[in-house]
Amino acid sequence: MGKCKQRLRARAKNEKYQLKMTREEALSFVSNELCDDPSSIPARKLITLFGLKAEEMSEAGVTYEVLRSLDGLIS
Length: 75
What we know:
- There is one protein chain.
- The chain has five helices and no strands.
- The protein is elongated, with a radius of gyration of 14 Å.
- The protein is 64% helix and 0% strand.
- The protein is mostly helical.
């Protein structure tokens, strides 16, 4: 195994949110994080990991302005 794959696996093991998380839990975490800090990196990671849609996040309480700032990540 190459060094790059070893680093990626080690990084995944040490990731802060490696615990099993459901889609609903991820959605609530993302909405809370984005309300506090619209540029939250953990929230952005969860959006891409779970493939959250703009409609779902809007229903969870994320404001329109924050959704527009995430235009490149969400569909």
